[in-house]
Structures are given as C-alpha cells and as structure tokens.
Amino acid sequence: MKTSATIKAAAFGGIALLALTSCAANEAAAPADNAAASSLTGTLVGGGASSQGSAQEAWIAGFQTANPDVTVNYDPAGSGAGRDTFQQGASAFAGSDRAFKVDEISAGPFEACATPDIVEVPAYISPIAIIFNLDGVDSLDLDADTVAKIFSGQITKWNDPAITALNPDAKLPDAAISPVHRSDKSGTTGNFTDYLAAAAPSSWSAGSVEEWPTELGGEAAQGTSGVVEAVTNGVGMIGYADASRAEGLGTVAIKVGEKFVSYSPEAAAAIVDASELESDRTEHDIAIKLDRTSTADGVYPIVLVSYLIGCEKYADAANAELVKAYFSYIVSEEGQQIAAEAAGSAPISADLRAKIEPAIASIS
C-alpha cells in the first residue's frame, strides 16, 4: 500500500514541531573538537516509543554536536504510531517497545526499504514502574496476581485483604483504587500486559496486548506523560509507566520467587541477559524473548526492551548513511551512558552489543 500525500504530510508536519527542540540541542552544546571532521549532512526523521523520549533527547544532542550538519527529529507519538509511520515510509526509522511480529514483517510492505528485510536492535532497556498516589504511602509490595486483579477491576479498594496481607505495616485507606492505562496503542502497555499474561494467567485473561481492553474500565491517558500526569494529580490513582518518569510517586516492588524486587536499571538488565533471542527471525532482526516468570535472584520482570527499527537496504542512500551512523552512536558505550544519565535506563551489555553491531553494519 502506497502512502498518500496527506498521510506523509501529517507525519512530517507532526515531527516538524520538534525541529526547534533539535535546533536548541545543537545550540546548547559546544561543538566537539572533531565536529569539523564529520561529513554527514541532512535531516533524519524518526518517531515512535514515548518511553525513549528522554533518551532520544540526549542522543540527538550528542549526535548533532558531533555532526553539526545533521538534524535529527524524533516524534514520541507512541510505539504503534512509530511502526505505522515507518512502515508507510513517512519516517526513516522507528522506536518501538516491541519488535515487529514475524507475520507483520511478512505482510509488509515497508515503503522506505528497497528490500523486505528490516533491522531491529534493542537499544533502550528500562523497567516499567507501577506508580501510585496514596497519602502517607511511598512504596508497596505486590505479587503478579494482585497487580492483575487491580488492573482488571477485581480488586477495587486499597485496603483489600490481598494488598494488606502483603503490606502489613502500611496504613492503607478504605478508599477506591483508580487504575490508569494508556489510551494509545503502546509498547509499554504491551510489555506490561505481557508480564501479567505470563505471571498471573489465572487472574489476567486479556492476554498480551498493546491496546488496553476497554471492557476492563479504568481511566485512559495519552502517552507516558498522560499516565504520569493522571496519577500525579489524583489521589488513589495507580498506573504504569517507564521508570524514568516515576520520580515523586509511590512505586511497587514486585514479588520474584520469595523476594520483592524494586525496579532498577541493574534489575532490568539482569532479566534481559537471562532471556533468549526469539526464533524464526532473520540474521539482523535481534528480538529478545523476555522470561517474565524468571525467579532468578535480583531480576525485575516488568521491563521493556525498546527497539530501533530501520531498513536493511534503503531506497534512499542518504537515509541509509544517517540511520547507520545514528544507530551506531546510540548503541555505543557513550550513547548508552548518556541515556542512562538522562533517563535512568540500563546500558546494554557487551555481549548484547556484540550481537547488535553486525546488524547495524548491514544497513545500506
């Protein structure tokens, strides 16, 4: 299906609103000593996962400082929107909190690509925090079954016996729980519900889905920012969001084995390194099959692995050059470190980087 001029114009128009941010990033940072050596020029357009928002801002600033004749625009419209825009050829790359499914790739087409093959690499690893707003309570211990019942509407009060049994010292009010979920198609929702489906199948029947099941009720909010804002502004609210946005809110430690594990970059990295790659993928499609039910010590199972997605061979050689350079910067030790500082993400391990780099090198 070819993309209509209207769709492309809308996509580029939305992303263009970010141009001032990109320009500001260039102006804010002093040029690197070797900036003059960069021969890269042009504008690179991408978009997708809002979870990557803070990291993308840091990556763009660093990359544009090293490559002053390049402008990178990233629209954090959500994973689903990012995949759609990339597939329609209105962006050169996507950020997504899940990889494309094998049948989605087979169905294609990818308008910016000269061949059907795509490159998908995990570049942003972050725990998903369960956040809440409850007077006098800063943290709670919950197991998967209780979380599933809260978000499916089976547990409706903060002093429900299932919650109080896990938190005997907490002063929990006889007040309504108000769950908040994403209104948009979201990889964060996909990862959160994937955990519930795997770890609490008897209490969560909606499966692993990116669009929240409306029959479960709750308050809907647009994007990561919308969920955080709703929880922040409403006492008794509970939601889920990239952990980089959890500051100032109550958070949940999740039961893993016989222990409760709080989210952290280290715990998120541990579950990724303990998981295997998905099968039935091409050589340069590096998708991870997360083990949500692991009982290994120190792992945090509600984690998102957010991907960079591009073409293995681009129809436009200029896009290929810019995407290859930008992806290489992001997965480098420097790129991963600035994301960790800006967004609290977990840097990818050396072993994972060794799998990723050949995939990026294949881009042409």
Task: Report on the architecture of this protein.
The chain is an alpha/beta fold and 364 residues long. It has two domains: 5-126 and 278-289 and 305-361, Periplasmic binding protein-like II (D-Maltodextrin-Binding Protein, domain 2), CATH 3.40.190; 128-270, Periplasmic binding protein-like II (D-Maltodextrin-Binding Protein, domain 2). The protein has 13 helices and 13 strands. It has helices at residues 5-16, 19-28, 53-66, 79-87, 102-107, 144-151, 161-166, 187-199, 223-232, 265-273, 317-331, 333-343, 350-361; strands spanning 42-48, 70-75, 93-96, 118-132, 139-142, 178-182, 219-221, 237-242, 250-256, 259-261, 276-277, 288-289, 303-311. Strands 1, 2, 3, 4, 5, 6, 7, 8, 9, 10 and 13 form an eleven-stranded mixed sheet that branches. Strands 11-12 form a two-stranded antiparallel ribbon. Strand 9 and strand 10 (259-261) form a beta hairpin. Residues 1-35 have low confidence and may be disordered.
Q: Give the number of helices.
A: 13
Name the shape in a single word. elongated
Gyration radius, rounded: 21 Å
Largest sheet: 11 strands, mixed
CATH-derived architecture of the largest domain:
3-Layer(aba) Sandwich
- CATH names the topology of the largest domain as D-Maltodextrin-Binding Protein, domain 2
Structural class based on helices, strands and sheet pairing: alpha/beta
Strand content: 15-25%
Total number of distinct structural domains: 2
- Percent of residues in helices comes to 25-40%
Average of pLDDT: 90
Q: Could you tell me how far the N terminus lies from the C terminus, measured between alpha carbons in angstroms? A: 23 Å
CATH superfamily of the largest domain: Periplasmic binding protein-like II
| Series of secondary-structure elements, N-terminal to C-terminal | HHEHEHEHEEHHEHEHEEEHEEEHHH
